[in-house]
Amino acid sequence: MPRDYPRGRRIADQIQRELSEIIRLELKDPRISLVTLTGVEVTNDNAHAKVFFTAFGEPVQQELAERALNHAAGFLRSILARRLQLRTVPLLRFKYDESVERGMRLSALIDKAVDAGKDRDC
User: Fold this and answer.
1) Does residue 35 form part of some domain?
2) How would you classify the pairing of strands 91-96 and 48-55?
3) Count of C-beta atoms within a 10 Å radius of residue 54
4) What's the CATH code of the domain at 51?
5) Phi and psi angles of residue 85, each rounded to the nearest 5 degrees, phi first
6) pLDDT 10s per residue in the chain (122 long)?
7) What is the pTM of this model?
8) Residue 2, domain member (yes or no)
9) Rg (CA), the chain
10) Domain for residue 73, yes or no?
11) Residues 50, 40: Cα–Cα separation, whole Å
């Protein structure tokens, strides 16, 4: 690894990869079936990690997915502890990532504005 790539970022990336696999293969909760992890932020002391995710569906389904993930956080952390070579495995807190949804809305607005501009030019 290059020196300019901080250890915290490497740990966050590894946590994201491992959690994605664990959620996909080992969690059987139907509320979590369409969840994608988008990022992980780890504190400097590795005590806490915010795990960002997106989920398809209505806002109610996204809320249910967030609750289910936070409910399973202890189980997920215990599996991570077995897979990762870390002295301290961070406490996990899952948070819905609204940036993807915001980006899609902005893209739709831009497309609409471009289409409206084309109609005016004709």
Assistant:
1) yes
2) parallel
3) 17
4) 3.30.300.20
5) -95, 65
6) 444 558 889 999 999 999 999 999 998 888 887 899 999 999 988 899 999 999 888 888 889 999 999 999 999 999 999 999 888 899 999 999 988 777 777 888 888 888 877 777 65
7) 0.79
8) no
9) 18
10) yes
11) 6
The one-character DSSP state at 29 is -
CA atoms within 13 A on the CB side of 40: 24
54 in Cβ contact with 35 (< 8 Å) = yes
Specify the number of domains making up the chain: 1
Q: List C-alpha distances in Å: 23 to 64, 75, 76, 80.
A: 15, 11, 8, 11
Beta strands in the chain (DSSP E): 35-42, 48-55, 91-96
* 1 falls within a domain: no
CB 92: neighbour CB atoms within 10 A? 21
Residue 93 domain boundaries: 7-121
Contact 18, 84 (CB under 8 A): yes
Q: How far apart are CA 27 and CA 32, in angstroms?
A: 8
What is the DSSP code string of 67-89? HHHHHTHHHHHHHHHHHS--SSP
